[in-house]
Structure prediction request, 78 residues.
Amino acid sequence: MLNGMLWIVRSGAQWRELPETYGPWQSIYALFAKWRDDGTLEAVFYALSDDADMETLSVDSTCVRVHESANGGEKNGG
Prediction:
């Protein structure tokens, strides 16, 4: 079920588009909503981030947006 939740987060898809290999989307959504409401997901996030390895961080440039003037586009002059 956790893999199904992670697939939704990673893909950005709607719950109804969850592949059948993860199980019924209604069951996975119900558990996700329960964990969201009772703070389980937040606790897991903080537990994992406490032990994060900050020595080797990287940013994929495909997720960084740049203003059009920074990548050779027209500048609004004034």
